[in-house]
Design brief:
551 residues; Rossmann fold; six-stranded mixed beta sheet; alpha/beta
């Protein structure tokens, strides 16, 4: 007996070969070719998945990064199993192609590279037909995950108007084990303030300035309420929303539906896990850390909140373009930053004077320095040496991407701390010549955020709570190689990401069951077995032709 899954499929002939979900290409067996009318539509020889992957990788090699991205997009439109299996066997090489940094370049050229639509596009001028359009996509479909975006803050390149939000879904299936047939990408097109797009005659989105204020809120709310009405058990993932909306929308909906924001909660969770691993090396308490976050946008504030919730302390110092966030900044301080404002009397400075990073390091003596600013070189030698003077093992996370915008090169940070720093960075370079490859809470949010989503989806949680996210972060920290060897990486190797995400997902679901937010009637000890059953892997099943089967 075969251990492959058996599917009853209603498609035949060209309809089967053009369905990316069901197409096997040259891997259809002789029996399947006969049953599904494929004998004259395929070359004679039957290939194994290994042979198909080898052929595809040979075709991929030698292309530019953007060429590889385009090739893989085309493959995904033809054959899901081959696409995911190819990337899964070459994670280190190909995830940067389908995600940051190459995906950012592809998105910036989205209108010029456009070949076919993916997911659901909801444009503001079509808001009256939103419910009808939504049901066209989800009716008769089992949806576990919806990723939606208004594309205002895409992967470090800002406002990109209306590209499809598919890269996060790919990671959710590739690394998180969520069935791609049960995922939906939604583009919420509310216009763009990018002049290059507005002046581009090939731009495919709605060519108007971004909708703001009550009209924007009503548009987003109408969509969220459709999700709650028709797919109440799915996870709604907010992706790449701008700083003025990201935290506000998360706060508005997190108590009424299972919603998740990768930029805020995902980056925060992985940073928390990395910090837990780092202090496991230093043997100091989490609550004893003094943390400086340079860059108080969505990611920076998300990290600060996640750490604060886990640490139950207020020893945070946040800086943005006006310097240290403190009460004297008045209108220069955003509403969502006020929770972290330092009192003016702590500094004795004039309310208009800027308190910079070096000032904060010298006065606050931080043990942890985190960068999310995209301000290249912001972590100066003076600041890092001042930090190292007061801390035995300074923890330094320059997280900005792309590499040209990083706050400090890890090699420099290592040199300026005389090799004492514990580093995690978005750059794929070792801090020392003899160092293991460093891993990053920013560049490798895929190392756990798909697992967070998998856990919430698995147990049909009614909410994504902070305690669920912290449970996932704790499980990730427990898997740190540095806990066994202090010179090893703070996070597991990215090649292990699928198995790591599985563990994170189990921890999240167990926590949801323990706190009563799960929508399933399971015991905690049931979770691992249920997760194994639910985990999707790119495997060709055996097909039986059935006119009443799946389409």
């Amino acid at each position: 007996m075969s251990d492959k899954p058996v599917f009853r499929v209603a498609l035949r002939g060209d309809a089967l070969l053009t369905s990316p979900r069901w197409n096997k290409g040259t891997a259809f067996t002789a029996e399947e070719r006969k049953a599904f009318g494929l004998i004259g539509r395929l070359p004679y020889r039957v290939n194994t998945i290994d042979e198909q992957v080898e052929r595809a990788f040979d075709q991929l090699s030698g292309r530019s990064d953007i060429g590889k991205n385009s090739f893989l997009q085309s493959m995904k439109a033809q054959n899901w199993v081959l696409y995911y299996e190819l990337i899964g066997r070459h994670l280190h090489e190909l995830v940067p192609i389908i995600y940051t940094p190459t995906e950012a370049e592809a998105i910036s050229q989205y209108s010029h590279l456009f070949r076919r639509s993916e997911g659901l596009y909801i444009a503001f001028p079509h808001r009256e037909s939103m419910e009808e359009d939504f049901l066209e996509q989800v009716e008769d479909r089992d949806i576990d995950l919806i990723v939606c975006s208004d594309a205002e803050a895409i992967l470090g390149i800002g406002d990109q108007g209306a590209p499809a939000t598919v890269s996060q879904l790919v990671l959710s299936s590739l690394i998180g084990g969520i069935d791609p047939s049960k995922c939906l990408a939604v583009t919420l097109d509310v216009g763009t303030n990018n002049p290059d797009l507005l002046n581009d005659k090939l731009y495919v989105g709605w060519p108007q300035k971004r909708v703001r204020g009550q009209e924007y809120d009503d548009f987003i709310d109408k969509f969220v309420q459709l999700v709650r009405k028709y797919r109440p058990h799915c996870l709604l993932h907010f992706e790449d929303f701008g700083v003025t909306n990201a935290q506000r929308l998360l706060r508005r909906y997190r108590d009424t539906h299972a919603v998740f924001n990768d930029d805020i909660q995902g980056t925060g969770a992985v940073t928390l896990a990395t910090l837990m691993a780092a202090i496991g090396v230093t043997k100091r308490k989490l609550s004893d850390q003094v943390i400086v976050v340079y860059g108080a946008g969505s990611a920076g504030l998300g990290i600060a909140r996640q750490l604060r919730d886990a640490m139950a302390t207020s020893r945070f110092y946040l800086l943005d373009r006006f310097g240290l966030i403190r009460t004297g900044l008045g209108d220069k301080m955003r509403e969502d930053q006020r929770d972290f404002a330092r009192k003016e009397e702590e500094w004795g400075a004039d309310a208009q004077a800027e308190v910079g990073l070096l000032d904060v390091v010298k006065r606050a003596h931080p043990t942890v320095l985190i960068g999310t600013s995209t301000h290249a070189g912001a972590f100066t030698r003076d600041a890092i040496e001042a930090m190292a003077e007061k801390v035995d093992r300074p923890i330094i996370f320059p997280l900005s991407n792309p590499s040209k915008l990083v706050e400090v090169h890890p090699h420099d940070a290592n040199e300026w701390t005389r090799g004492k720093a514990l580093l995690a960075t978005g750059q794929s370079v070792p801090a020392r010549e003899d160092a293991k490859w460093e891993t990053s809470p920013n560049a490798t949010t895929p190392s756990s955020t798909p697992g967070l989503g998998f856990g919430a989806m698995l147990c049909q949680s009614r909410r994504m709570t902070d305690t669920m996210i912290i449970a996932g972060a704790q499980r990730l920290a427990e898997l740190s190689p540095a806990l066994q060897d202090p010179d090893d990486s703070l996070l597991p190797d990215f090649g292990d990401a699928p198995d790591v995400n599985f563990e994170v997902g189990v921890a999240v679901a167990e926590q949801a069951i323990e706190e009563g937010t799960a929508g399933v009637d399971w015991k905690k000890e049931d979770v691992r077995g249920r997760a194994q059953e639910k985990r999707w892997k790119p495997i060709y099943g055996e097909y039986v032709y059935d006119p009443e089967g799946e389409m």
